[in-house]
Amino acid sequence: MVKVENLHKSFGSLEVLKGIDSEIALGEVVVVIGPSGSGKSTFLRCLNGLEDFQAGEIYIDKIKLHDQKTDINEVRAEIGMVFQNFNLFPHMSVLDNITLSPVKVRKQSKNEAEEIALNLLEKVGLKDKAQAYPGQLSGGQKQRVAIARALAMKPKAMLFDEPTSALDPEMVGEVLGVMKQLAEEGMTMVVVTHEMGFAREVGDRVIFMDEGIIIEQGTPEEIFSNPQHERTKSFLSKIL
Amino acid sequence: MMTLDFGLMVQALPLLLQGAWLTIQITFLAVLMGTIIGLFLGIMRVSHNKILSGIATVYVEFIRGTPLLVQIFLIHFATPQLLGFSLEAYVSAVVAMSINSGAYVAEIVRAGIQSVEKGQMEAARSLGMNYSQAMWYIVLPQAFRCILPALGNEFIALLKDSSLVSVITLEELTRKGQLIIGRTYKPFEIWIAVALIYLVMTLTMSRLVAYLERRSKNNG
Questions:
Q1: Has residue B99 been placed in a domain?
Q2: Distances (CA, A) of A166 to A140, A161, A162
Q3: What is the structure's pLDDT at B2?
């Protein structure tokens, strides 16, 4: 589904990704953990072209992201992204937030898009908020709308960039619940998070990153119960 | 002790209002075209394309760095040499004011676009929208809301600056005042009347902007 080879990325003279190799299978839930500044968010953002990269190759379903000729908009339409700060469109109702891209990019009819949007809102438990504006929602509700908005494009994979980091603690659960449900339905997911409980319970594989490289990866069981690398051990001891 | 001849002010009113109507017309047209020019230039200025942003920067710097009066003279008196025909004063006035206003609007638009959180563009792009779609549906509506006061100020300034086109004998409000003074030798009364009419127009405009601001805020 996703294949990354020798990915290098620098911001100016600062190299944040120093050669990442990874493969993500269809339906797999990969959780990326690591200290801040380890490059995990940058890695995620490279996967849908929000960041360009200096060297390496990324294949999304055989499409080459590193190829100048690739239409990046087509790739992005296939990959949903959920941000730490929600990034809902504040000047539009919840319903319009969700239907805009399906209508403008996928050329769905307004009716069709709204029907899909309402179904998705029901799925994330917010059908009654369709006409509300983002400013009227709590953080947890915003993030669930953001997930519905990404799902409306019928993506082949979903990227989550610290989706619960900006939430009040009591709202983390509702967002993780939606994500867990998605995972159970077989969605391919890459999740950058500090929620170790989620990683352990939902993740098929955990990747530990530090200083721009993948230090180690494995099943949640392997990483959390029997980490091999010193840095993984010290990171886990600090947060668990 | 000098007294104001109110009778004369009332007598002059119909002619002055004729001029004011012309002032409103040319300002309206210049606001309209200035907004279109400014919108495109503002978008060009934030573009990653160096050529586009370069063109916009040169335009803005040139127009902002030279007096409107000189621009009016340039358009009105230099175009006949370049194009082989002369423009009507009305056309010259609207063109010069539009070009001038476009530069200021461009800067306002640029600031507005840059004030919209970067995540908005990213979210739109991550949903598969291309740059123009993201700009048009997501960034610009939000930018517009926050630049409305600045735009209002620009248009009020433009209305006042329109008095400069009196120099190319276009009979807008200021020119009408001059002409009446030429006949009556009563500058004090007439200039006061002229000033008051400008004041009424600018106050109306600022009310209108305040109303639009309130309305766009209530909207979500």
A1: yes
A2: 9, 11, 8
A3: 66
